[in-house]
Amino acid sequence: MAKGSSSNNAAAVFGTAVALRLALFQFPALASLLGERVEISTPVTSFKRLSEGVFLFTNGVPPYDGGVVHQAPLLLGLFYPIISSPLLVNLLYILTDLAIGYMLLRITVIKDMDYAKEKKITQYGGKEEEPGMGGLSVATLYLFNPYTLASCIGRSTILYSNTAVVAAIWMGMKGNRSLAMFSVAVATYLSLYPSMLIIPVILMLTRKINDNDLTKKVTIQCTGLFAGSLVALFALSFVLVNSWDFFGSVYGTILTVSDLTPNLGLCWYFFIEMFDQFRPFFLVVFQIHVFIFAVPVSIKLRKYPLFVSFLLCAIMGTFKGYPSIGDASLYLGLLPLSSEIFKYMRYSFLVTNLFMYSTLLAPIFWYLWVYVGSGNANFFYAIGLVYGIGEIILMIDSTFAILRRDFEAHSPPETTGQDAALGWDREVVQK
Amino acid sequence: MPTDRDSMAANDNTRRMVILSVWAVVLLGLPLWWKTTRVYRAELPYDSIDQWNQWKACQPKFPIRVNLHLSETEQQQSGRNPELSDVTQGVTRRFQELNTANGVKESLLAIEFIAGKPWTGSINKDITEHTSTVPGTYDFYISPSNVTHASIRSQRQGFIQVQSWNTDHIIDTIVETSSAVFGSEERTIRQLLDTNEDTQGVRKVHDQLKTVKYAPGYQLTFSLFSGDASNGVREWKMQEVIHAYLAPFIKTMSTVSKFTIESQIQHYASLAFTPQMDYSSQEHYLTPDALPNFINAAEWSLASTVSSLPSLNFLTYVPKPSESPLVIKTGPGASKSSTNSFLIPRWGGVAILNRDIDRTKRSEEHPEVITVQDLEPVMRVFLTQLRDLMGVTDLSTTTQSSSSFPIVFHKSLNEAPTTWELDNLLRRRSAENLVDSLATISSLARLVRKTPNMVVLDHIQKDVTEALRDIGRSCEHLSRQEYVEALAASRDGLVKSETAFFDPTMVSMLYFPDEHKYAIYMPLFVPISVPLLMSLLREVKRLKEKKKQAQMDKDSQGHDDHDIQHDKQE
Predict the structure, then answer these.
(1) What's the CA gap between B496 and B444, in Å, rounded?
(2) What gap in Å lies between CA A173 and CA A185, rounded to an integer?
(3) In this predicted structure, what is the pLDDT of residue A415?
(4) How far apart are CA B430 and CA B436, in angstroms?
(5) What is the DSSP letter of A5?
(6) Partner A contacted by B21 (CB < 8 A)
(7) Residue B127's closest CA among B164, B94, B159?
(8) d(C-alpha A90, C-alpha A26), whole Å
(9) In this prediction, does ipTM exceed 0.85?
């Protein structure tokens, strides 16, 4: 494979991605339609609210007073100079999306290098396992994922949080501690939940260190870097908006789920229906539930930090208060990084169908509920549940697959003898 | 196989760590559970509520001062003059005796008789310089005459004429007059403040049936409902009538409550039913049973959107020609109601105005206008109804029977309450407010005590405490004869106690038994806790087995070791 052809391919993929996005941005009606869909922009990622915040900020009104803006102050600062030009805003979105694609490509390259050093898994029939997807394929899967496109055209600000997450993983794989921790801090700063990614990123940074003491030292150093970056970001925000109001407005809204605009998630309906008496309790339960998985998953799968970060992103995207398809685009983009587990997955067809089903029916049921009035909130929520089930099955299935692969690596299948017949039914998996 | 064992140990370790990390979060969540589902209960002042319920904290007293004035001219004429101090002491003593006879330890209306200045005026001339402007302070002017006679004037003055000018007779007459004036009020207030729970409810319902709940302001709505356009009604002179007849009432009442007035005309406002026909008298009539259906609540718009004050409605209904004339009577041939009107308790009044269309057409310039003359009888009825609704007691009707000599009560213009009636109203309304707010607070306290999972927020506690303070303030004002201030304070107390009672945060948890909690927790926590507990149990089991294994390994190693182990165990 010549280097030239691969770079040509890359140019073609990225060029097409840019062209497609530019073309779609040519229809402002589409952008505003997508921007208003509850599946794409939530109260904490809506571009409309961001513009409002920037407008208030420009006019010297404290942007977090009115309870409309829930985006981080530095995001307002980022958009402040360019908001008046739609072209620049669109370009920023396109370039950010491309950057994620590029970083995914780079991550795959690093991962492949790691993979080349590992002992090869012997598969049924004595074959060696083939390497997973190439970097360009991973980037293509991300860039041309309909969720990614819709989220980008809808100008959801989750894109920036996603960028920070992917950058953190890239830097973690590269071994750049300070930049990795800074990226995790930025992601945390933008949408809080990615703070739990600090564990897999530290696992990445320490994956080549065998010395226990050194690992501990690096971990402490990284935690310090993370905390320092976060404090610096907060301080910078304070300098920008000159008040600490943004804490309540940005993180308070995320944690207390105070804006109950319907979305694809599971929280809004619960908190609408709930007795007020129990609201604080279930709020705590729901939020703990998001974070409870971080430690056990990282312990169990500590050899696969890339997969851990995928799983945690999927958990966030499923259980957080304001999920959108932008979250799905992130974890669906991270999943191909562990493409070697695909062959062990059993429910890919079901999951694909569940995603398609909910994607098609969510707008319809929303229309039936909100515009026609022949449906009710339960219709839309049911679709949210289907979507959630799809995500959960995907998580369970992929976790099963990676554990299965781990098992294969430790106990290579015997081509002959009793184990092959009595043990796991490998033929089914291997096809 | 050392590597295998290592990897198994590593696996065990990992599993244990995973279980531990999940359990750590769960255990961390437990205090949060306790904290977030804790039923917040601010402590209510139960002790002082109980004290108030028995009137132990402050017994309301309604002091009344009566200044006695003896005629000076008569003193000089006859030889043996009754001493004013004797009269005063005598009256006071007689009142105490009366109370003791009635089994009352202490009179609620603490009437105090004070020797006033002698007077030289004439009975026919109002003594304006001695007019009392303080509610609760009155002047009795006593003079000799041919017949015993008492006349209660409007300006807190009473004129008593006695037949024989001696101390005993004067005392008798004063006592009789005083009990005629204040006796029924004393009884009413005593019933109100009665803390005996058996009798309380019944009497209250009876007494307060008609009267509207006290409010510092009311909205009066005068509505003209015209059954049909063909009865020729276009306009009514309500504004003039209000100015002429209602103004004095409102002015006098303004110390107790303020009024805002609006009027409306609705055409084609027909009845929801057809009145019966009495062919003998050619009249359409409504029986008293039909009256509850008179208000066509579905079609007549009576709700006022202008203010949030409690509203009282006064309807004038002009029947359509097909049901005219319309009267109220019990049946055909029975005598019809003289006022052709009725009162709806706590809501307002209704008057039916029959117009003789032919006559009005002949005699008047504008037959489509209901004139002031037409409206006068209606307005008189409304004024009487308004007095009833406001709880103004007509002293002349309540005290007529008992006295041995005639007592005349002077009325003021256009049914406006007299000063006597107004003072009476001030005292009774204060007492009512005190009783009502205490009843509200004590039922709130009962409710909170009986419902242990009811949330009691701080502002409820604050409201209750402040209401109690207002009640106390009102009680003090009463004992100092500051009736206007007492009424204001009692009203504040009532408002606060009701705010606390009807607070939405309390209502939501009224019917929330413990069983509901299981229904809330089960669907979430049973699915979560089963794998958590199972994994924990399995892990414990595995640890035990491992220990056993280790024990057995040791056992097989040597007999000596086993003995040592055995000793240790013993």
Answers:
(1) 12
(2) 17
(3) 55
(4) 10
(5) H
(6) yes
(7) B159
(8) 10
(9) no
What's the token pair of residue B98?
């009366």
Burial (Cβ within 10 Å: 0-12, 13-18, ≥19) of residue A220: exposed
pLDDT of residue B32: 87
User: A300–B18: do the CB atoms touch at under 8 Å?
Assistant: yes
Find the CB nearest A292 among B7, B22, B508: B22
Nearest by CB to B29, from A284, A295, A300: name it. A284
The stretches in chain A having pLDDT less than 50 are: 1-2, 420-431
Check CB contact of B408 with chain A, cutoff 8 Å. no
Q: Tell me phi and psi for residue A430, to 5 degrees.
A: -75, -20
CA gap B352, B342 in Å, rounded: 9
Interface of B with A in 485-514 (CB under 8 A): 508-509, 512
Distance from CA of B513 to the nearest CA of A (A): 13
Which range among A146-160, B354-368, B442-456 shows the weakest confidence by mean pLDDT? Answer: B354-368
Q: Enumerate residues 167 to 226 of chain A having a beta carbon within 8 A of any beta carbon in chain B.
A: none
State the pLDDT at residue B570.
42
The whole-chain average pLDDT of chain B stands at 81
Q: CA-nearest residue of chain A to B15? A: A300
Is B14 close to A276, i.e. CB distance below 8 A?
no
| Spatial contact of B134 and B57, defined as CB atoms under 8 Å apart | no
Mean pLDDT of all residues in B330-356:
86
A308 in contact with B, Cβ within 8 Å: no
Asked if B157 contacts B419 with a C-beta cutoff of 8 angstroms, the reply is no
| Helix, strand or coil, per DSSP, at residue A410 | helix
Min distance B507 CA to chain A CA atoms (Å):
12
Contacts with A299 from chain B: Cβ below 8 Å: 14, 17-18, 21
Q: How far is A361 from chain B (nearest CA, A)?
A: 27
* Predicted pLDDT of residue B367: 72
Q: Name the burial class of residue B419, with classes exposed (0-12), middle (13-18) and buried (19+) by CB atoms within 10 angstroms of its CB.
A: buried
Instruction: Output B75 or B278, whichever has higher pLDDT.
Output: B278
